[in-house]
Amino acid sequence: MSQSLLEKISATQPGGGGESTPIYDPATAELIAYAPQHSTDDLEEVLRRAVEAQPGWAACGHDERSRVLHRAADAIDAHAEELAVLLSREQGKPLNGPNARFEVGACAAWLRANADFPTPGEVLVDDGETYAEMHYEPLGVVAAIGPWNWPMMISVWQLAAALRMGNTVVLKPSEYTPLSVLALVEVLNTEIPEGVLGIVCGDGQLGKALSEHPAVNKIMFTGSIDTGRSIMAAAAQHLNPITLELGGNDPGIILDDVDPVAIAEGLFWGAFINTGQTCAALKRLYVPDELYEAVCESLVDVASQMPMGNGLDEANVLGPLQNKAQFEVVKNLVDQARDAGAKILLGGNPEDSQPGFFYPTTLVADIDPHARLVVEEQFGPALPIVRYHDLEQAITWANELETGLGASVWSADPERAREVASRIQAGTVWINAHGAVDPRIPFGGIKSSGMGMEFGIEGLKNVAAPKVVNG
């Protein structure tokens, strides 16, 4: 019998040599495996290999690198179910719905999309007297530091473009979800040349050492705003370019011409995808007075039918929160909203007796527009629904926070929706949807939600050095 991915990537338990840490299933509290904990010496070795491999990888050219990315995508497909099961066990997300199998499939799709994008570059001036072209060349070694909510998919968002442009990559996954990214790299490296894609596992101190290392030429980070500020300070030491995708507190504004029943399922998944643990999820919903009760009723009807439980149960589409700290954040925000007079339409009552970090699907109505549950990112399965009387007030509320990742406008009139969207301060504003990312369409935040773009041709440019050839 062939060795499983989990067996290949697992560290020995304490006392067996090397540093390791136990990783537990957030749905059952059962031990999954021990993850390796890499030292700064390990980091030095992985970076050394990345530096040595980079010139040869760049010399392969775009066509060969694209072929490698396609083969890597095929390797993911060949191991898709094993990867999805491990992801479900470690992160908690169910196999079905827009969750574990969806995430693994997105990894392959993003690799293929990046492989097939046309090579960036353009003629800038050609007027008979002056000729100038823009080229994009590799930066060198890219440090990619990822989160625990979409550990595999966001790693691929970072590495796919970087590898396509001729960089080598060193990944540092979240200490909460190292196993799934280790397994992903194990699969990818069956097709990617040695040294081109490396990984180190550890806590924030190892991430700090990686981001400050002089061998690193670009830093990509997805995570919290506070850590993003630290990454930015580290990048300044060597004047490294950075891409930051940080926290969001995305607003959704419903206009007064919609059918509440027709949009209810779209609203639900916009808010509760990955059990609400998504940076660009719908986290505060503004509803006009005349539709307020109908929208609330329609959302309750949809949400109450979505089963939550162990992700390995094929029936479930919602799972636990990934860790206890996030569970406490959601619980405290909902409890405070309830104590302040908000109405709990659904949920809000976690069962202390069951194992795992399950917080029930929760809808909160009649809430003050400046309650903590509204103005602080909950990052979990609790949606505040705010009543508005005047559209101008809703737009003001949508824009008054420091975040600006995503937003949405819901209307039967696309032109009217686009006019409202033009006034919302966010990197992306969706119309009649929320959080629908596409590898062809650039994505990034403004204000405290980050800087730089990922996806599409712009994403390739953001992991490359522009060079003008003039003459």
Automatic annotation (TrEMBL):
Gene Ontology MF term list: oxidoreductase activity, acting on the aldehyde or oxo group of donors, NAD or NADP as acceptor
Gene3D superfamilies hit by this protein: Aldehyde Dehydrogenase, Chain A, domain 1 (3.40.605.10), Aldehyde Dehydrogenase, Chain A, domain 2 (3.40.309.10)
SUPFAM superfamilies: ALDH-like
Organism of this sequence: Corynebacterium spheniscorum
InterPro entries membership: Ald_DH/histidinol_DH, Ald_DH_C, Ald_DH_CS_CYS, Ald_DH_CS_GLU, Ald_DH_N, Aldehyde_DH_dom, LUC3-like
Name recorded for this polypeptide: Aldehyde dehydrogenase family protein
A Pfam family matched in the record: Aldedh
Active site: 245
Keywords recorded for this protein, A-Z: Oxidoreductase
Keyword Oxidoreductase: yes
Domain Aldehyde dehydrogenase: start-end pairs: 19-469
Family (UniProt): Belongs to the aldehyde dehydrogenase family.
Compositionally biased region (Polar residues): 1-13
Annotated segments matching region Disordered: 1-21
